[in-house]
Specification:
This protein is α/β, with parallel strands linked by helices. Helices cover about 50% and strands about 15% of the residues. Strands 3-2-1-4-5-6-7 form a seven-stranded parallel β-sheet, with helices on both faces. Helix 6 links the parallel strand 6 and strand 7. The structure holds nicotinamide-adenine-dinucleotide (NAD).
Length: about 270
């Protein structure tokens, strides 16, 4: 497999102002890429832009709420106008939910789908012609919850499974055009994601969260994503617990279900 290089390539990262998106943007920028960060958090975007420039790294920022199609169209078109095209789109912006199905309002599911699924859809639709023209790459940040069940996160898991269906199918339409699609399934990574998790009523929840295994850093996730992109991987599963969970859920789904139910029992009942 031919390795991809990213020097002078245009890399667009949604949700680029924080966590995995931010660390990945830095990693690509350090390799000489021209990064464009899209995020709805304008204050953080401005701070990140200053930090990148202070470190001599190439970056542009575009305020963008990915749930709004016109925002996505405008942000992607601005990048194309200013930087000439798009080589890599990292669909990373996301939110999570932490609540039992029986308690959770239907609107919460809609909100999570709007960000995690439709956000990625809108940005990909806006960028796809340029990506095809440049024989570029689409990276999608899913989760272990995109390939295996996760209690207390039925909405989050549904949105990530939807991404899985969309992007594994899109791969079959654009692979022969030279476009690579890489799906990333992180385990638990220490970011701001859980601090903003929606509860059953749609407000940010203060319920404590359960973990499986050790939480990795955004920087270690970014390094793996960068290497995986260079090597043109189809599927990248991150963290030791994530890899184990992914395999057990495939090979012994009943056993996995019992273990994960036990692990998350106190969170759901608390
Ligand atoms: P994070 O909260 O640190 O970063 C998410 C970023 O997305 C934030 O900058 C936020 O402002 C932005 N965002 C949220 N809604 C948006 C919207 N409507 N429009 C534009 N930007 C928006 O969290 P993170 O952990 O870095 O999450 C990044 C991705 O990684 C998410 O898709 C998440 O599901 C996935 N992921 C994270 C973990 C984990 O343990 N942290 C595990 C698996 C998957």
């Amino acid at each position: 497999m031919l390795k991809r290089g990213f020097k002078d390539k245009v890399v667009v990262i949604t949700g680029g102002a924080s966590g995995i998106g931010l660390a990945t943007a830095r990693r690509f920028a350090e390799a000489g890429a021209q990064c464009a960060l899209l995020d709805m958090d304008e204050e953080s975007l401005a701070a990140r832009e200053k930090e990148f420039h202070a470190d001599g790294l190439s970056v542009m920022t575009c305020p963008c709420d990915v749930t709004r199609k016109p925002d996505c169209d405008e942000a992607i078109n601005t990048v194309i106008r200013r930087l000439g095209g798009i080589d890599v789109l990292f669909n990373n912006a996301g939110i999570t939910q932490r609540s039992r199905f029986v308690d959770t309002r239907a609107e919460v599911y809609r909100n999570v789908m709007e960000v995690n699924f439709f956000g990625a859809l809108y940005c990909t639709k806006a960028a796809i012609d340029s990506i095809i023209e440049r024989r570029g790459m689409i990276i999608v940040n899913e989760s272990i919850a995109g390939v295996a069940p996760l209690p207390g996160r039925t909405g989050y898991s549904a949105s990530k499974h939807a991404l899985h269906g969309l992007f594994t199918s899109l791969r079959t339409e654009v692979g022969h055009l030279g476009v690579h699609v890489m799906i990333v399934c992180p385990g638990f990574i220490r970011t701001n994601l859980q601090d903003r998790a929606l509860g059953a009523d749609g407000r940010v929840t203060d319920k404590p969260q359960s973990f499986v295994g050790r939480q990795d850093t955004p920087e270690s996730a970014a390094e793996a994503i960068f290497k995986g992109a260079s090597r043109q991987k189809d599927l990248l599963v991150l963290t030791a617990a994530g890899k184990l969970g992914c395999w057990i859920s495939r090979l012994a789904p009943g056993f996995y279900q019992r273990q994960i139910t036990r692990r998350f029992k106190s969170e759901l009942e608390g």
